[in-house]
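Page 42, continued from yesterday. The earlier attempt failed because a stray header line got pasted into the input along with the sequence. Redoing it now with the clean sequence only.
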Amino acid sequence: MYNIIKTNSDNADFKALIKLLDRDLLAIYGEQQSFFDQFNKIDAIKHVIVLYAGAEPVACGAMKHYDADTMEVKRMFVKEQYRGQKLGLNVLQNVEAWANELGYSNCILETGSGQDAAIRLYQNNGYRIIENYGQYIGVENSICMMKAVG
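This time it went through. Structure tokens are written below.
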């Protein structure tokens, strides 16, 4: 049985999951990851989803304001032993629904070219590749995507 909560970046379970995410990203990208770390600070994120299996936090996602119509999806993660069960999709859809409830029309995100499973998740859920935005302009291994949610 899975349970989802809406919270913020002060949540201890979210912080613990982010440590695991950062470890995974470091393993994929090595020293290149330090460039992205500057854009992945979690302090003051007001919109966080944590998914639990019983009492154990197993997946998370967050979003932050990008512009008047758009939220940026951030820090999507599923613990390794829980992957392949569509929990990432569950979290993503909850993030999108929350963005819609808050009056936003779009979600954008950035993921790395080395994250094939994440790219498939987003594309299978209606995200389309767009030109790199903001701090990702000109970054070769960044893939930016967008989806209308409202």
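Notes: Residues 12-29 form the longest helix (18 residues).
Reminder to self: strip header lines before submitting.
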